[in-house]
Design a protein that fits this description.
21% helix; 2 domains; 2 helices; elongated; alpha+beta; 37% strand; Immunoglobulin-like; eight-stranded antiparallel sheet
């Protein structure tokens, strides 16, 4: 018995439609992977070791020391790095203690403190964090995650009552934790 030509046409159309949808889905997945996958970082050689990445910024940035301070861009605030754990800052979760003073040298209380990270050589921005107000101008940053070795711009953005939002920037060459 011969198959009905209309039924055969319908089966062929369904198979073709499924194949087209599969090709379309494959193209969408490939495009998403190409666009969304992390790009290789910066102009470095492929696959640098931790030591190579840290060595690529040796001598750059701020030299860590207790009491290192920066004046904000508009001179509204001074941000002092009172302590860091590990010291100097290293790969992984870091904890910082900051002290904020206004332009007149008074403790800044009740501020919103955002910490923004950027790796200029790698051209990407890992997730930042916030500072917790401990009173008398002291702020704790307990979950500052420096995700890999390399040069980090650490921008401390301060929004305080009665002041405009302003920011100060530290820059550290980060090695492996404990280096």
């Amino acid at each position: 018995m011969k198959a009905d030509p209309a039924a055969r046409f319908q089966r062929v159309t369904q198979v073709a439609r499924r194949a087209t949808i599969s090709r379309w889905r494959a193209a969408c997945v490939a495009t998403c992977l190409a666009l969304c996958a992390p790009a290789s970082c910066g102009d470095e050689k492929p696959g640098p070791s931790d030591t190579d990445a840290a060595d690529s910024c040796t001598g750059e940035g701020d030299s860590y020391k207790v009491g290192l301070s920066k004046t904000s861009n508009a001179a509204s605030f001074t941000v002092e790095l009172v302590d860091a754990n590990p010291a100097p800052p290293g790969v992984g979760t870091n904890a910082w203690k900051l002290r904020l003073k206004d332009g007149g040298g008074n403790a800044v209380v009740g501020a919103i403190v955002n910490i923004n990270l950027y790796m200029p050589k790698h051209r990407h921005a890992p997730a930042g964090t916030v500072g917790a107000d401990r009173g008398d101008g002291a702020y704790d940053v307990t979950d500052l995650n420096l995700v890999m070795p390399g040069l980090f711009d650490v921008t401390v953005e301060v929004t305080a009552p009665g002041h405009m939002t302003d920011s100060a920037q530290f820059q550290f060459c980060v090695g492996r934790k404990g280096d």
